[in-house]
Amino acid sequence: MNFENSFCILQNNSAPVELSAIPALVYSDFCEVLKTLLGDLSNHIANYYIYPETDKNLFICVVLRDKTNDIAVFSHVQTADVTELSSLTPELSQIHIFEREIMENFGINFLGHPWLKPVRWSHDRKDKSLIMDNYPFYSIDGEELHEVGVGPIHAGVIEPGHFRFICNGEKVLHLEIHLGYQHRGVERAFVEQKKPLQRAVLAECIAGDTAIGHGLAYSQLIESLSNTEVSNSLQIERIIALELERIAVHIGDTAALCTDVAYQFGQVVNEALRTTIINTTQLWCGNRFGKGLIRCGGTNYPLSEKVINSMLKVLDEKGKDYMNMADRIYTLPSVLIRFDGNGIVTNEQAQTIGAVGMTARSSGVNRDIRQSHPFQSYKNMSYKPVIRNAGDVLSRGMIRNIEVRNSIKIIKDLIEIYQKSAIESNSPNYLLKLKPNSFAVSVIEGWRGEICHCAITDMHGEINHYKVKDPSIHNWMALALAVRNQEISDFPINNKSFNLSYCGFDL
Predict the structure, then answer these.
(1) Which residues pair with 453 in a beta bridge?
(2) Is residue 500 very low, low, confident or very high in pLDDT (cuts 50, 70, 90)?
(3) What is the spatial order of strands in the sheet that 17-18 belongs to?
(4) Range list of H helices, 24-151
(5) Angle at the Cα of 374 (from 451 to 399), degrees rounded to 5?
(6) How far, in Å, CA of 86 to CA of 75, rounded?
């Protein structure tokens, strides 16, 4: 086996390739290639899933390579009657969730997988006898131990999810996170909904707090498959919107962190500041979360001087207010005593589970798509990720703090470039023709981390398979690790410090 010919290399984020050009390896070779790729800790799995064909299953694997700034795509093919494969999870832990999803959807038994349980309980899962009511929770026998169940119904507006703790007194020995309560059929809808506008709206609804991120991942993917180049000015507008979304959520999460340590002043101030940011997005496109703003090939809401002036004023005034509040929060002893050393995810753990986004960076893993696989206007800038090494609540909070400041600067710099450049404003194009028999992948660094959309077209250029990966699918395991040996009362603050998505996971 020639290693260098074992995978297809995509040099550009979202560049398409003919489906037939993706190397299809025998499974033993596939395993060796994946082990070799992931032997370099700067690489990680972005996606691994089945594309079902008439009489066989094509297992597609997407690995992001940070050092070479490219994407490795390869596969293995199994006849439709194959129901067992050796699991790679014992050696490559980060693949565990992908093997579980394949098992649930297609009935493939990954022999040796230590945790082969359903992921979502989707209505079209292979084995209907696998139901939520008989989910095999991990258990430990012992008279001194007890279990605590939290959810799936939670107070407020939080989405459904069940957390099963095994505790010794107040200390958490083990947490199992049980999701899958929402079945929207998002990926199937991308295939069944033939109108591009419907798909664009669908992308924005994958995770309500990441409408810009998922909307951009979809648009970038379609533009790639249709060989559509968008103007520099439109790329700038999109990144401004993405960074506004990042600022708004980070400030809102800072408010929530203050809530969980009973620091009400920090809570109410940050809640008010977040409102000013999302109101700016509403002024721009009529929706506080940016729905309707990102569309393929163009925009219905080009940046106007009125919006720019309002945006700059808000970023100047409210940005300073946030920085002053954040400086107070992160120097206040009563806050720091709850943040510092709480909920540690080590660098080794983050690497092992394939963590992405803030979760990875707070544990010292330099993983940020804006740097490693730059997209849109990031291609023209040198972005340096914010890294912290302690892996605790304080690190996750500080990354939010510093990223807000960085995002404000990015937006201001881009506005300056925007105002000096030739502005090309095109309306969205809903008639784009997609390249037939092709595969494409689009990767975006949303505020949570890496968003990955993949699509396959048929011989007529119609989408006949779509795969969505929200960063939360990597990172829920990090939360389970973070609360080990912590008091159960520290769970809320740890949960909020990650702020992972239920709906982005459940699809």
Answers:
(1) 442, 468
(2) very high
(3) 17-18, 438-445, 450-457, 463-469
(4) 27-38, 96-106
(5) 65
(6) 15
- Exposure letters 185-196 (e unless 16+ CB within 10 A, then b): ebbeebeebeeb
With a pLDDT cut of 70, the percent of the chain lying above it is 100
Residue pair 190/434 in contact (Cβ under 8 Å)? The answer is: no
Note the pLDDT of residue 502: 93
Residue 193: name the closest of 216, 213, 222 by CA.
222
The residues, ordered by sequence, that sit 6+ positions from 371 with a Cβ below 8 Å of its Cβ are 383, 384, 385
Note the pLDDT tens digit of each residue in 203-247. Answer: 999 999 999 999 999 999 999 999 999 999 999 999 999 999 999
Quick count: other Cβ atoms within 10 Å of Cβ 474?
Answer: 28
Determine the Cα–Cα distance for residues 363 and 352; give it in Å rounded to an integer.
12
Q: Quick check: 161 and 181 in contact, CB under 8 A?
A: yes
Q: Encode pLDDT of 354-406 as tens digits.
A: 999 999 999 999 999 999 999 999 999 999 999 999 999 999 999 999 999 99
| Closest alpha carbon to 189 in 163, 166, 159, 218 | 218
Rounded Cα gap, residues 490 and 494, in angstroms: 6
Q: Tokens 């997407």 — which residue?
A: 62
pTM of full prediction above 0.90: yes
| Single-letter residue type at 89 | T
User: Which helix (H) or strand (E) segment is 482 a member of?
Assistant: helix 472-482
Residues 6+ apart with CB under 8 A from 151: 160, 161, 162, 163
pLDDT in tens, 30-88: 999 999 999 999 999 999 999 999 899 999 999 999 999 999 999 999 999 999 999 99
pLDDT of residue 356: 97
Which pair of tokens denotes residue 468? 């969505």
Assign residue 304 a region: left if phi > 0, alpha if psi is -120 to 50, beta otherwise? beta
- Rounded Cα distance between 475 and 388, Å, is 17
Q: State the Cα–Cα distance between residues 24 and 270, nearest whole angstrom.
A: 51
Residues near 15 by Cβ (< 8 Å), separated by ≥ 6? 224, 440
